[in-house]
Design brief:
Number of helices: 11
CATH class of one domain: Alpha Beta
InterPro entries: AKR, AKR_Detox_Biosynth, Aldo/ket_reductase_CS, NAD(P)_OxRdtase_dom_sf, NADP_OxRdtase_dom
CATH topology of one domain: TIM Barrel
Strand order of the largest sheet: 3-4-5-6-7-8-9-10
Largest sheet: 8 strands, parallel, barrel
Structural class: alpha/beta
GO molecular function, one term: oxidoreductase activity
Order of helices and strands: EEEHEHEHEHEHEHHEHHEHH
GO cellular component, one term: cytosol
Protein name: Aldo/keto reductase
Organism: Novosphingobium umbonatum
CATH architecture of one domain: Alpha-Beta Barrel
Helix content: 40-55%
Length: 304
């Protein structure tokens, strides 16, 4: 069977000079359950020890926690402040542009203030990768671009990205930016294959954007499939999992990484053992036949 290439040891973020591991660790649940600095630091170390060098957070993560908005960033900031040597060991990514109770806000005044607030909570001078979290339909992309370019010029941000943007929204913002986007972060998993066929990944390859996949395990539904479609996808993944002696989770991560767009799955687990297990996906190789079998199961019909 024709074998697909393994992911490289390092990936550049878009056409930038930032180089990261082919997998990332996400912190949307970092601040849950009253987790303290020591426990959070253990998770950061677990990711670094697993070879993961891209850490992704957002200002809204922890919104439903003890202190509300900004909890995850603030907790990571305390981890960094307690051990400043950690900062040089990873690429720091964050996101902004959502402000409850409003849906989204990328007006110039708000977005500029949000960037400064993230820097304060994270206790850093610069965020390596700043992503607009969800598109604000009421914000003109030229205005958003101006704020982002100004933040880069001021040394607050190194590189720029977007999350949950359509192809047209990516193109519009990128058009007005002097510092072009390097990352797009959609939801991608074996359960959500929309971007394989709607042009999102094709655009990413055309523009040189690195896709970061949030919820690569379908919000945990791959572990406990309930619908016939979910069960079919799980069964297709299990064929490879059983053959390679790996878990379905690892199979799912590696399936995404086999795509030529260079997808970086974001591991969402806050369990050190599962973070380490996820990183083992880097050594799993797929055949074309196996890969397409998962896609067919996800589509629910044969390819034409």
């Amino acid at each position: 069977m024709s074998q697909l290439p393994l992911p490289p040891a390092q990936r550049a973020l878009g056409q930038s000079d930032l180089s990261v591991s082919p997998m990332a660790w996400g912190m949307w649940r970092l601040a849950e359950g009253g987790r303290g600095v020591k426990e959070a630091a253990a998770l950061v170390h677990a990711a670094l020890d697993a070879g993961i060098t891209l850490l992704d957070t957002a200002d809204i993560y922890g919104f439903d926690g003890a202190n509300g908005f900004g909890d995850a960033e603030a907790l990571l900031g305390e981890v960094i402040a307690a051990d400043p040597s950690l900062r040089s060991r990873f690429v720091l990514a964050s996101k902004g542009g959502i402000m409850p109770p409003l849906p989204y806000d990328q007006s110039p005044a708000y977005l500029s203030a949000a960037i400064d607030a993230s820097l304060r909570r994270l206790q850093v001078e610069v965020i390596d990768l700043y992503q607009v979290h969800r598109p604000d339909i009421l914000a003109h992309p030229a205005d958003v671009a101006r704020v982002l370019d100004e933040a880069v010029a001021a040394g607050k941000i190194r590189q720029l990205g977007v999350s949950n943007f359509t192809c047209a929204q990516v193109a519009a913002l990128n058009h007005f930016l002097t510092n072009k986007l390097v990352v797009t972060q959609p939801e991608i998993s074996p359960l959500r294959i929309t971007c394989f066929e709607n042009g999102e990944l094709d655009q990413a390859m055309m523009l040189g954007l690195t896709p970061l996949a949030w919820s690569p395990l379908g919000g945990g539904r791959l572990a406990a499939p309930e619908t016939p479609r979910e069960e079919a996808i799980a069964a297709a993944l299990d064929v490879v999992a059983k053959d390679r002696g790996i878990s379905r989770t690892v199979a799912a991560y590696s399936w995404l990484m086999a795509h030529p767009a260079g997808i970086i799955p974001i591991i969402g687990s806050q369990n050190p053992a599962r973070i380490a297990e996820g990183a083992s996906a880097l050594s799993v190789q797929w055949s074309r036949e196996e890969w397409y079998a998962v896609l067919v199961a996800a589509r629910g019909e044969k390819l034409p």
